[in-house]
Amino acid sequence: MELLWEIAGWGGAVAILSAYLTVSMGWLKAGKAFQTANLVGASAFIINGAFHGAWPSVATNVAWCLISAVALLRMRAAGGSAGSDAPAVQLPGVPDTTGQLAVIEPRVSGPHPIETRAVEAGAAGTYYAEPHTAEPYAACTAPAAAPVRQGAVAI
After folding, report:
1. Where would I find the CBU-0592-like domain in this sequence (predicted)?
2. Were both Cys, which of 8, 29, 35, 144 would link to 47 (CB 3.0–4.6 Å)?
3. pLDDT per residue over 80-94, tens digit each?
4. In terms of pTM, does the model score above 0.70?
5. How many Å apart are CA 22 and CA 28, to the nearest integer?
6. Pairing between strand 107-108 and 134-135?
C-alpha cells in the first residue's frame, strides 16, 4: 500500500511539472488541459503528503487544487468549446506564451567600460571617473510610425 502513495506523489509531480513545462515553452496555452493537469497533480500530492504527514504540503496543494477547480468551473460556465485551450484574455503587446522577456540595456560610450577603468586604476593609484553618456538602442528611438512585430513591446 505504501508503494501506491509513493506512485501518487511521483505522478502528481510529473503532472504539475509537465503542465508547467508545456505552458512555459509555448507548446500549450494555459487553458483546460493545464488546469486539469494541475488539479490531478495537486490531488495526488494531497494523498502523498497526508500519508507522510507533510501538512504544509497538504495545505498548499489543497489551495492549488481549489484554484484549479475554480478555474475549470469558470471556464465551463463561460461556455468555451471542450477542446479550446485559448486564454480568456489576451492583452495587446503581451506575448501569448510565457517565457518571453525583452531585456533592454543602455550601451556605455567611451574607450573602456567604467568598471574596467576602475580596476585598472586600482593598481595605478587614484582613479577619477570621466563622464560617459548612455546611448539608447535603436529600437527604443525608432519613429512612432514604424511597424511593430506581433508580440514586441513598444517602449
Report:
1. 6-75
2. 8
3. 544 445 544 555 555
4. no
5. 5
6. antiparallel
